[in-house]
Amino acid sequence: MTTRPPPLHPSNQPAPGRDPGASARDGQWRKPALPAGCAPDGFEPEAPEIREGTEWVDEEPAEAADEERDVWDILYGLGSFGVSMLVHLAGMVLLAWLTVPPPVQRDLALLEATFSPLLEDEPVEFELEQEPPLLNDPSLTLFSSAPRVGAAGDLQGSAGPPQLDARVLEQADEDAKLDEVRVEYPLAGAPTFEQLIEAVPDGDFKGDPRAIIDDYQQAMDRITQELMWKMDRGPLLLIWAFDQSGSMKDDQQEIRQRVNQVYVQLGLTGRERSQFLTTSVVSFGESYLTHTRKPTSDVEEIRSAIAAVPEDPSGREFMCQAVGAAISQHGDYVRSSGRQMVLILVTDESGEREDNRLYLEQVIGEAKAARCTIYVLGREAVFGYPKAHMRWEHPQTRDVHWLPIDRGPETAFVEQLQTDGFRRRHDAFPSGFGPYEQCRMARETGGIFFLLPGIESSLVRGEKRIYELEIMRPYRPDLRARKQLLLDRDRYPLRSIIWQCIYDLDPLQRPELSGQIEMRVHFSPVFEEFVRQARREQIKAKGYLTYLARVQRALEQGAHHRQQEADPRWQANYDLIYAQLIAYQARMWEYGAALEAFIQKPQVVPLTKPPDLRLVHWNVTVRSPTRTKESQAYINKASALFRLTMENHPGTPWAARAAGELKRGFGVDFAPEYWHSYRWKHDGSSGKPTPIPKL
Known about the structure:
By secondary structure, the chain is α/β, with parallel strands linked by helices.
């Protein structure tokens, strides 16, 4: 039986006068509303093309003029005495504001927005409908005055040797330059920053934010042991909270099959002891559902309730609100029966970011007040990136879609570049830890985050890596509250510089720049259109090189802070990002050179191949050989810095990422891509087209 519990509040905003940080009870949980005018951050790249940037415009309400007239009518009706009162009241408020010290900002959004962009220059502008001008600034020449498409399609122009901007990277003795950023580890026995934080007693028992398991059986055995220890102190209520996403169906089925073993191992199958442990089953997606009429000890009823968890097509997971609603819903039952409360969260995503930002600390406070221990069965977070992508092939058109899911990051704020040098990241590089919100909930309530084994077969660019626990211990994420981390930002200059560098090159956070720092990776098979696209990308590449160089210089100015940083995690962040900034400049130069080479000497391939393949576009690929000698200084520098990162941080995601960048190569080329003709359109023979799912 599926029943609805205290429903989520229908409003999208907190009730008037209600503090968003206050304790939530009796169904007063609300879905957060995104700020007006914000573009959705979901990204669903489809195989045929890369989506271009979209301008989002807020429309002014039509009633604005009428409202303004109403205000003047009210003021007129007040008379001189009323107006005088309003003026004096405004003066008193202004005086109070000037004399009373402002409180600490409570809104995380305001704190997060305090960065001033490093990239102060206006982005490069060009008209898509017209031929872009050739680059003619001798101090910033990137590519030759290459042929361009004329009115009649004729190619004209003269070739010249490409020149690299000398201001981007001053070539010097490589060994001397590397010595400037070489910093040895602190004393082997010195505590890390996180260890010092955890050493401060706060009266709470801290849980384990990272427990690696080989399979679900290990997780269930460990949970059974945890329940047994708790039941030594009295009866217990166990709440299973399942994510309603379609990707969780297999996990739910496996847990359903193993639930009976938990009761058997606890020795609670006998009728006289069965009420010592009762269970509720809830689930969440865009909405929240309860699948047990009341807490029960009937194993078959529990298994039926798990099987009744639906699949939510919205692709949204309000995780924090659901956990808070489950705790609040069962509060009276726990208090009246004198039971302890345990909640097991089963999910493969990190939840809606806005929901997490608004309600995470509220949920932790609610759990602590209810003495609820939270355990999490979750997936590994993507290294320094909030998204992962699942490969999905349309059953009718055979188009391949990369469906975005929330899968990170492992930290409160991203600590890695959000670009791969050409465009926003699309990898699922493992971080070694779970998502920040879930790990923090488990740790703060005395629970455990269980890192589920293996990777999903449909995970785009997923990798199977297991990092040793002792090696990763000094690199643990800081699991303090977001607000505390933001308030501490200015105390650690290196971290502030790195965060700002990441922000300035983040196409998700800075949509006004996404069209300038995301390069085209699919080009038309029609040569004239290829040339037009290439010319636009070469101009964008010029601006992007300027951006990368400026961020590089900002990071170099903080090199002395790198020498003073004691936390290995932030040392590694600096080392890897610095190497990537230089490597991406080399690749961007080679990108422009590859476009130029293709225009000068186009590759010739057949437009069709048997049986029914058709050329759809040219894909940008990365290779080891390079085309120009001008990029070699960048390549040498970046390669040495990547090797230094691997040497200083062995066995960590930073070292693995550096090794991957080296293996990836610095050259750029183009490869033809063919599709079957039936992928072009749906012929309607099998009914309506299947909609693209949301995970």
